[in-house]
Amino acid sequence: MVFLSISRRTRRTPFTGINQRLGVQSYTVYNRMLLPAYFRSLEEDYVHLCQHVQLWDVSAERQVEIRGADSGRLVQLMTPRNIGTIAPGCCGYIPLIDETAGIVNDPVLLCFSANRYWLSVADSDVVLWAHGLAYGLGLDVEVFEPAVFPLGVQGPKSDDLMARVFGSQVRGLKFFHFAQMSFEGHPLVVARSGWSKQGGFEIFLDDEALAEPLWAALWAAGEDLSVGPGCPNGIERIESGLLSYGNDMTLENNPLECGLGRYCDLTSPLEYMGRDALRSIAAEGVKRRMCQMIFEGPVVELVPPFAVLAEGEEVGQMTSCCRSVRYGSNLGLGLVRADRAYVGSTIEVVHDHAVRRGQVREVYGDMQG
Amino acid sequence: MVFLSISRRTRRTPFTGINQRLGVQSYTVYNRMLLPAYFRSLEEDYVHLCQHVQLWDVSAERQVEIRGADSGRLVQLMTPRNIGTIAPGCCGYIPLIDETAGIVNDPVLLCFSANRYWLSVADSDVVLWAHGLAYGLGLDVEVFEPAVFPLGVQGPKSDDLMARVFGSQVRGLKFFHFAQMSFEGHPLVVARSGWSKQGGFEIFLDDEALAEPLWAALWAAGEDLSVGPGCPNGIERIESGLLSYGNDMTLENNPLECGLGRYCDLTSPLEYMGRDALRSIAAEGVKRRMCQMIFEGPVVELVPPFAVLAEGEEVGQMTSCCRSVRYGSNLGLGLVRADRAYVGSTIEVVHDHAVRRGQVREVYGDMQG
To answer: Which residues on neighbouring strands pair with residue A30, listed in sequence order?
Structure first.
C-alpha cells in the first residue's frame, strides 16, 4: 500500500470534501482528477452497491463539449459508430479511434442537438484530440471542457431515491436517455446511465455551489434506503464485463478485437478516421478476442497486466483482475488469442511458481470482426 | 493521508519494482503513470538531494516522438519559441500553446535532426494534440509515444557518479545538450537536464531489460557518494521557481503572465498557433504575474489552490506551496495581480481564520509581456 500525494494538478472535485468526511480510503487519478477507489473495502462497497443505492463522485468523467455548425462532422470523424442514430436527448457509447483504428477513448456521447454534444470521456485527453483535429481541419466548432461534475446514483434502489428528490418523472426516463430536471430551481441534466450494471443515473452538476445541497438532499432522502458513499467498483465492473480504457484497451487495440464490433459501421459510406484500417482488420479476422476469465486459488496478488497461458504457452494477457464475490474465485478480463477464445477454453495463470487453472467464462462481441 | 489504488491504467515503469524495494511511500500519477512523490519525507529527501546524488524514476516524463518531413513545421506550429535556434544535439524548453495562447504543455524539446524530435512532456496528452493537428493539416509526420523511460541523476555529485558509469566525457556535456553514450554496449541518449536546480542528467532508457542493470551500476558506483533514491522534490522545485504544468499553469493561462516571455517570439514572422493572441496580450499588458511568495506561521495545511490577499482583498492564488527548508517558512508560487506583483509587495493568506502575513520574494519573467 502506498499513499497518494495530492496537489492542484490531481484536481479536487466539488465533492472531494464530502468523500473525505465519509471516509474514502483510496483514490485513483483519472483524467488528472481524484476518483475514489473504495470507502470501506472493495468487497464491502460491492455488497452494498448490489443491494442498496450509492452516491458516486464521478467528476473525473470529464465532459468534452463540442459546439458549432461542424459539431456533428467532427464527432462522426472520430468514431466508427453512426452518430446519426443517436437522437437529441439520447446517449450513445461511441469508441473513438485514430486512422490506424487504435482506440483513443470510449466515451458516452450526449446529443443535445445537431450543433451541440458532450463526450463523457474515459481517461485520456479527448479535449486535446478533438481540438487538434478541429484546428487542423479548420472546422467551425468550439471544443472545451465545461465545469460539469457528474454525480452517479447507482444501485437497485436508485429509482426510489431519485424519485424522492427529482419527482416521479425520473422513473420514466429510459436507459441511455437524458432530460433536464430541476433541483432547487436549477435545471440539471440527468441521464439513466452509469458505470455499473446495478441500474442508476448520472446527474451532471454544472454549479459547484450546489454540490453540498445536492448530496445532502439525496443523502437525507435515502436514509431508509441505506444510501451510502461509493464509486465505480472494480469487482462489479469486471463481473459485469465493463471494459476500462487504459486497463483493458489502449491505443494499441482496435474495437473489433475488444468486442465492440456492434459500434462499428463497416459497410455504409460513413466518413470517419480509421475506416479503411477497420475494414482490413475485419476482412483478415481479429487475432485476439476480449474474454472474461475465471481461475482458481487464493486471492491473487498479481497486478495486471500478466500473462494468460494455455498448456504452458502464452495465449493472452489479463488486464484487469479481482476476487469475484459472485463466483468466489479470481476473475479477470483480457485479450486471448482467437483460437483459444471460446467459452470453456482452459487457461492457466502462473503466480509464485504455482499454476492456477481456469477457463474462459465469456467472449465479448458479436463475432463481426 | 489516502492510499493510491494502482491498476494497469496508472502505468508502472521499468523502475517501479526498484522504487518499491527502496521504500517509496507516496506516488503521484503523472501522464497516467506512477511518479514517486517521496521516499523518506519531503524534507529528508530534499536535504539529501541538495548534498549528494539521487536516482529518479521520471519515466512519467513521457517522450512524444515527431518524425518525418513535416516534423519541424508541426513542432513550430505548436510553440511560440523559435525552434530554429535549437540545433541537433540540443534541448530547448518550449511552452506549447493553442490559438488563444492557452498553455497546452511545457515540454523540453530534444532535436535529433530537422526530421526527428522528442518532446519530453509535462502532464497532458501532447501525443493526442500533436497527432490531431497533424492529421487535420495532412502533415507528413508520424507522432507516437516511444517506449522510452527517463532516469534522472540529480544532485551536486551527479557528475562524479555519471563519470564513473559513462566515462569522463559526460563531464564535458553542456547544459541542455545531449549525446549518445554507451551502457553495456547499448547506446543511450544522455542529456544534462532534469527537474531540479541541483545539477544533473537524464538518461533516456529505451530498453526495459536494462532498467535493473543500469540502476544497479549507478547504485554500486555511488556507494561512497551516498547515492539514494529520489524524485522531483516539491520543496526544491518551489524554492528554485520551477513551474509545474497543471499546478502553476493550465490551459487557462498564457506564457506571458507565467513569466515565460523569453520563450515567445512576438516580433518575427514565425508562424505558430496563438501568435495573434499572444501579441494582443503583450500589447495590452499582462493582468497577473507569476510570483514566489513567502508567508509566516506554522506549517500550512492548505491544499492549493488558495487565495492570496492584500489588505483583505483577493489579489491572486497560491497554486503550489511547501514548507521551505532554505527559508524556514511557508513558500509558494502563484499568479498575483500585476499591480501587486513586485518584490517586497505584502500579501496575506488566511488559514483557519488566522491571517498569515507574507510578501512577494520574486517575480518571474522579463517584463516583456
So the answer is: A33
Query: What's the predicted TM-score (pTM) here?
Result: 0.97
**Do the Cβ atoms of A85 and A94 come closer than 8 Å?**
no
Distance CA B224, CA B280 (A): 55
As a whole number, mean pLDDT of residues B85-102 equals: 98
> How large is the C-alpha radius of gyration of chain B?
21
Closest chain A residue to B303, measured at CA = A7
Q: Which amino acid is at B150?
A: P
Predicted confidence (pLDDT) at residue A369 exceeds the cutoff of 50: no
- C-alpha count within 13 angstroms, C-beta hemisphere, residue B245: 28
Q: A7–B247: do the CB atoms touch at under 8 Å?
A: yes
Amino acid at B13: T
pLDDT over 50 at B369, yes or no? no
For the record, the C-alpha cell of B325 comes out as 527548508
- What was the pLDDT predicted at B6? 96
Q: Which H or E run contains A165? A: helix A158-166
- Nearest residue of B to residue A127, measured between CA atoms: B129
Q: Residue B279 and residue A61: Cα distance in Å, rounded?
A: 35
Choose the mutation target among B4, B64, B272 for the interface with A, i.e. most A CBs under 10 Å. Answer: B4
A3 vs B4: CB contact, 8 Å cut-off? yes
Contact A133 B136 (CB under 8 A): yes
Q: How far apart are CA A252 and CA A229, in angstroms?
A: 35
Is residue B145 a contact partner of residue B32, using CB atoms and an 8 Å limit? no
- CA distance to partner chain A, nearest, from residue B305 (Å): 6
Whether the predicted pLDDT of A315 surpasses 90 = yes
CA dist A120 → A113, A144, B47 (Å): 16, 12, 44
List residues bridging with A358 in a β-sheet.
A295, A347
ipTM confidence score: 0.97
- pLDDT, tens digit (0-9, with 9 covering 90-100), for B185-203: 999 999 999 999 999 999 9
Whether the pLDDT of residue A239 is over 50: the answer is yes
